[in-house]
Amino acid sequence: MNRYLDIQPEVAAALAEGKPVVALESTIISHGMPWPQNAETAFAVEQTIRDNGAVPATIAVIGGRLKAGLSHDEIEYLARRGQEIPKASRRDLPMLCARGMDGATTVASTMIVASLAGIEVFATGGIGGVHRGAETTMDISADLEELAQTPVLVICAGAKSILDLGLTLEYLETKGVPVCGYGTDELPAFYTRRSGFGVDFRADTPEELAAVFAAERGLGYKGGLLCGNPIPEEYSMPADVINAAIDQAVAESAAQGVKGKKVTPFLLARVKELTGGDSLEANIKLVLNNAALAAKTAAALSALR
Fold first, then answer.
1. Neighbouring-strand partners of residue 158
2. Cα separation of 99 and 248, whole Å?
3. Which of 46, 76, 87, 160 is catalytic?
4. Which pTM value belongs to this model?
5. Positions in the chain short of pLDDT 50
6. Is-catalytic flag, 25?
């Protein structure tokens, strides 16, 4: 086992016995939602995974240790400290481990820790991608590179709709990352179910999704697989409403000179304000929906082994 990695006993036992385990990120706890909704959502997501037959493994860096599975107190600690916890992507892990610091893991770093622990399925809200205007800013999320090199199945509600979804799919195609739509032929657009951009293949059951990922592993591919799971219909937001809010938030971030790691938290917080909080409710519901599918897919994957 990696010298910097701690696997929670329940998670370690499940992995040793070949039982389904689902990884969860911690940036959504510390940076994605305000207190106390962040803690409430984190606990609800873990319970949803249990209710659907798998063991949850929320991932973070605490005291310089990579944690695959957190206790109740550790989740509450991350939730209460919120944005005081550094946002940790691939490039941040060595420094955090060396200095004994805390970190809330992004999609990329969660994939890294999950792979180190032997966890193959990961549920999140939405992945990062190619930002609008990236042709001049070169602002492209490390999540896309991680999908190209780390063998984890990532289930999400698509790329965050604050991004350029067309360019995000082009980047994933260049990197050879298979992109699935669950019950859809389009990449979901996070708050809304449709984006207008097609995916590589469609899966209509957890068993179909698990079979494709198992085949990818069997072929020796080194990267992962991305599955876009649309937000439930009843919580989907009107595209014109959310797009107008996003356009305004993007313009404000540019005017205020927001850059780097601060861009996504700024945009999500501003969109929440502009939509009267509706986007926060949608965010919570889509994460729970992804957790349920991830647990069922992890169970189907375990049955194939």
1. 189
2. 39
3. 160
4. 0.92
5. none
6. yes
